[in-house]
Design brief:
Helix content: under 10%
Oligomer: single chain
Largest sheet: 6 strands, antiparallel
Number of strands: 11
Strand content: 25-35%
Shape: elongated
Distance between the termini: 61 Å
Number of helices: 1
Order of helices and strands: HEEEEEEEEEEE
Structural class: mainly beta
Length: about 170
């Protein structure tokens, strides 16, 4: 009788198989090839370092001034989104800052100003047929009323942080 009770509640069962697939995209790599260098600038004067080719007028720059450069490598002709995660903040050992760089980013390959200047700003761009893009980084520093060396490595300084991700896969 115990056996009958156990088999009386048995139901029919069915199974199915679900296929799974994935297409793996080429990994994105982002490399800083040149840091931004304003050189020696004059106290109490706004300084503007154009991103290469951007057409912005240079002002109050030292002899060693040069825009920064970032290269992106990924899938051929893919769309990517570039976002400013952290603005560059300059400070010195005496913590006389901080001073924030108003960033200018220029897509060298397409001669396009990406109009990125603030945290959370983002822009779409396309990688070339080889999966590459080059960005030039410049910007404007406010009039700094202190003297000495200010950078993103000292005191409360913070580097410019960019995030690059595929736009749509």
């Amino acid at each position: 009788m115990l056996f009958l009770l156990a088999t009386a509640n048995t139901f029919a069962q069915e199974t199915t198989d679900v296929s799974v697939s994935a297409e793996i995209a080429t990994a994105l790599t982002v490399t800083t090839t040149e840091d931004v260098e304003f050189g020696t600038i004059q106290q109490n004067v706004i300084s503007t370092l154009p991103a290469s080719g951007s057409g912005t007028a240079a002002a109050n720059l030292g002899n060693t001034a040069a825009p920064g450069e970032v290269t992106i490598a990924g899938g051929a002709s893919e769309s990517v989104i570039v976002t400013i995660i952290q603005e560059a903040i300059l400070d010195n050992a005496g913590n006389d800052g901080p001073f924030t760089l108003t960033t200018e980013i220029y897509h060298v390959d397409t001669t396009t100003d990406l109009s990125l200047a603030n945290e959370d700003d983002n822009a779409d761009l396309s990688l070339d047929g080889s999966g590459d893009a080059t960005l030039s980084i410049g910007g404007t520093l406010p009039a700094i009323n202190f003297t000495g060396v200010f950078d993103t490595e000292t005191g409360g300084g913070q580097p410019l942080t960019l995030e690059v991700q595929y736009g749509s896969l």
